[in-house]
Amino acid sequence: MVWMIIGMAIVTAVPRFLPAFIVDQIRFPKWMDRWLNAIPYAALGALIFPGILSVKPEAPQIGVIAALVAGALAWLNLNIILVVLGAIASVFIMTF
After folding, report:
1. pLDDT of amino acid 96
2. Residue of 94, 86, 51 whose CA lies nearest to 68
3. What's the predicted TM-score (pTM) here?
4. What's the pLDDT tens digit per position in 26-80?
5. Residue 79 falls in which region: left (phi positive, over 0), alpha (psi -120 to 50) or beta
6. Which residues contact residue 63 at a Cβ distance below 8 angstroms, ignoring those fewer than 6 apart?
7. Kindly report the CA angle at 63 between 57 and 69, in degrees rounded to 5?
């Protein structure tokens, strides 16, 4: 049983750590580098957007307004903690 857990840990860890060691040694074409740099933003948007619409399912505009508040605070170059707290505060205010 212990060997099975160790084996699963190794099989899970290798694909996660291996790219960290070889990524500096590979040179991608410029177009691919731009595309790879855009992936984190696309993934973040895909994770955040459904949450924006489901903050309060019967009133999705609350999440949209909170996202706009967070966008405005981020545009002002505020600290990320303040941006998150601003979005949370706007949802809190609009739900009461």
Report:
1. 83
2. 86
3. 0.60
4. 888 899 888 888 888 788 888 888 989 898 889 999 999 999 999 999 999 999 8
5. beta
6. 51, 52, 53, 54, 55, 56, 91
7. 170
Q: Count CA atoms closer than 13 A to 52's CA, side-chain side.
A: 17
Contact 34, 43 (CB under 8 A): no
* CB distance 80 to 87 below 8 Å: no
Taking residue 56's Cβ as centre, other Cβ atoms within 10 Å add up to 14
CB-CB contact of 60 with 49 (8 Å) = no
Q: What distances in angstroms separate CA 41 from CA 4, 20, 35, one per listed residue?
A: 37, 20, 11
The one-letter code for the residue type at 21 is F
Structure tokens at 49: 């957007």
DSSP state of 58: T
